[in-house]
């Protein structure tokens, strides 16, 4: 091995634009999602090999990241090695922003960097799913994908990356956290399963044509359908604010507490509307922060 | 958990072909629209254990729903009994028999509920006599509107965001189901239902009707009145003339309900340039070659059918008024009882 250590970096997300169940070409329905990547927050992993038999991690307790590193060694290393994963992350935990997936992906990539192997994104995602049960789609940067978060497979590759978006980020319940692992996956009824078909169609159109307005409509509908599985306090009020200030829509973290009002950066009135929406959100007793998500 | 009960038999025939009709108007041309709700209802019945392999299906229908059930029964090995009436024409009758269906034709209408209710009463007798048989009940079965997710998806795939949906109302499945799915994404969607004179669906007094496939003598539970912004009632003559227009101007050989939807959709589209309009055309014209597309038949059944077409509808103050020509009423997404008030039941 030429390198003494390897590094890997993975980004957070701000919840999802769409989450539900979708047809796969094999004829089966799969759980799937489209994450809203949030590149400003990251997890950075450094893998340093050592002579011990096992992999250790710090901060301690990041068991899934440790397991991911271990699985990566088992899959790709020609000679089994021990080592240590050091994680540095500024992603908040339990908000549905993918802190855990980012640790896992950063760890896998740190080990791969050390080993100097370059598997496909889907291969990496399968290791991540093995380590973590469920994963987001932030690894896919060139094009947006509909990703089966529990199977580690891509259900659909869209023609383009997500368009640039302005998000007014709101934590709906700052005082509580959601554990992705303990959170029961939604059990959609047959009528809800059908609802995801038109949502997927409009999402595809929206991404292909960079139509933020339609993207917002899909996100809003997804938030409403999923509301009964993980209710967000104040969602209706946020929806009202979104429509009053002409936001394109409202997206949520389907396994977390975050919500975001989506504004179109191309819309000249968006800055003023975002400013007014922030004031209205303040009046609800919630804190919001504007985020600029650049086109990948 | 999400394993699907397949096969993919005939599923490729369920989706409409989207045809531009000038301006921003699109026709959703179905081969046989009812294949979609029929397949979906049978699939759900199998999943719920209501329909066993080789089981018997009983349904009341004089139209395309019967045909769709018969096609799917052949493919999946079900026995099928259809209760129909006069509207079940000679050609359809022959086709259903060739598909192995058993037919029971009701000759006398129910004094209040007309043929529709007479058929349903006869159907109940059959269901009692054949325990374990399955009744899809397209008028009441929630799976009927639910099945239209695929149609909504298809519209979006073809034309993107949609401003207005126009179609005839019979069971309520296609219009109410599609409208509900589209409104999740386009809350401002205008939904226009097309009915015919003497149909009780939107409040007309019940009396004999000259066109089948839209309207009716009873109000199906699947008609969700709160989906509709506007209701139009067309007389048989306008419907027939419009089916011929659709054929003669656009080359689309479709059934009479398609003609009805086209009439209203063309008018609304011309009044609202720039708005994307989709009109539902539920079946093709071949079934009607001896009727709608036979000018001798038309002349004798609907005298003056090809006379002057109305330029625009007449706005009516109430859906209950006596209508002789194309009428329109602003429904405003209300319940039937909210529109009609607490009127005493009409006999």
From TrEMBL, chain A:
**UniProt-recorded Gene Ontology molecular function terms:** ATP binding; kinase activity
Q: Do you know which Pfam families this protein is assigned to?
A: GHMP_kinases_C (PF08544), GHMP_kinases_N (PF00288)
Q: Where is the GHMP kinase N-terminal domain?
A: 67-133
The name under which this protein is listed is Threonine kinase
Which residue intervals define the domain GHMP kinase C-terminal in the entry? 204-269
| Keywords (A to Z) from UniProt | Kinase, Transferase
What InterPro entries does this protein map onto? Answer: GHMP_kinase_C_dom, GHMP_kinase_N_dom, PduX, Ribosomal_Su5_D2-typ_SF, Ribsml_uS5_D2-typ_fold_subgr
């Amino acid at each position: 091995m030429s390198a003494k250590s390897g590094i890997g970096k993975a980004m957070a997300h701000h919840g999802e634009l769409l989450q539900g169940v979708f047809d796969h070409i094999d004829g089966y329905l799969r759980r799937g999602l489209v994450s809203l990547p949030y590149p400003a927050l990251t997890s950075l992993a450094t893998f340093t090999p050592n002579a011990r038999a096992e992999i250790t991690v710090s901060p301690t307790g990041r068991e899934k990241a440790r397991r991911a590193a271990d699985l990566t060694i088992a899959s790709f290393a020609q000679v089994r090695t021990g080592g240590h994963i050091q994680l540095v992350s500024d992603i908040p935990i339990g908000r549905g922003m993918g802190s855990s997936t980012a640790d896992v992906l950063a760890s896998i990539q740190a080990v791969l960097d050390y080993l100097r192997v370059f598997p496909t994104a889907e291969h990496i995602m399968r290791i991540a799913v093995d380590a973590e049960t469920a994963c987001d789609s932030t690894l896919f940067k060139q094009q947006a994908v509909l990703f089966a978060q529990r199977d580690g497979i891509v259900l659909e590759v869209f023609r383009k990356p997500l368009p640039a978006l302005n998000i007014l980020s709101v934590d709906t319940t700052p005082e509580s956290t959601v554990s992705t692992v303990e959170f029961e996956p939604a059990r959609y009824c047959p009528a809800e399963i059908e609802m995801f078909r038109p949502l997927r169609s409009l999402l595809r159109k929206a991404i292909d044509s960079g139509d933020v307005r339609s993207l917002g409509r899909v996100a809003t509908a997804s938030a409403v359908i999923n509301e009964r599985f993980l209710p967000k306090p104040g969602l209706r009020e946020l929806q009202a604010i979104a429509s009053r200030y002409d936001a394109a829509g409202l997206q949520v973290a389907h396994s977390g507490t975050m919500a975001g009002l989506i504004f179109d950066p191309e819309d000249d009135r968006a800055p003023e509307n975002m400013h007014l929406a922030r004031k209205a959100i303040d009046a609800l007793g919630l804190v919001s922060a504007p985020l600029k998500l650049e086109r990948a | 958990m999400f394993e699907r009960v397949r096969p993919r038999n005939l599923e490729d025939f369920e989706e409409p072909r989207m045809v531009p009709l000038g301006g921003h108007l699109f026709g959703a041309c179905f081969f046989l629209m009812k294949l979609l709700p029929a397949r979906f209802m049978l699939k759900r019945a199998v999943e719920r254990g209501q329909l066993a392999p080789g089981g018997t299906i009983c349904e009341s229908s004089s139209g395309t729903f019967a045909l769709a059930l018969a096609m799917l029964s052949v493919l999946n090995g079900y026995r099928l009994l259809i209760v129909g009436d006069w509207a079940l024409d000679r050609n359809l009758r022959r086709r259903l028999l060739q598909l192995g269906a058993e037919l029971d034709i009701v000759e006398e209408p129910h004094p209040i509920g007309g043929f529709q209710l007479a058929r349903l009463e006869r159907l109940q007798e059959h269901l009692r006599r054949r325990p374990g048989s399955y009744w899809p009940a397209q008028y009441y079965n929630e799976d009927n509107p639910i099945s239209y997710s695929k149609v909504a998806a298809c519209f979006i795939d073809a034309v993107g965001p949609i401003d207005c949906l126009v179609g005839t109302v019979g069971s309520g499945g296609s219009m109410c189901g599609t409208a509900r799915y589209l409104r999740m994404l386009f809350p401002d969607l205008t939904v226009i239902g097309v009915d015919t004179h003497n149909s009780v669906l939107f409040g007309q007094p019940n009396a004999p009707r000259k066109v089948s496939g839209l309207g009716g003598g009873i109000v199906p539970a699947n008609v969700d009145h709160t989906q509709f912004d506007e209701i139009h009632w067309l007389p048989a003559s306008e419907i027939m003339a419009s089916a011929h227009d659709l054929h003669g101007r656009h080359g689309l050989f479709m059934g009479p309900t398609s003609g009805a939807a086209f009439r209203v959709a063309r008018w609304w589209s011309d009044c609202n340039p720039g708005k994307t309009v989709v009109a539902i055309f539920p079946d093709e014209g071949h079934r009607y070659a001896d009727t709608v597309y036979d000018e001798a038949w038309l002349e004798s059944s609907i005298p003056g059918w090809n006379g002057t077409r109305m330029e625009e509808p007449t706005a009516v103050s109430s859906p209950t008024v006596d209508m002789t020509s194309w009428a329109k009423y602003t429904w405003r997404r209300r319940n039937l009882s909210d529109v009609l008030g607490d009127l005493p039941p009409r006999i």
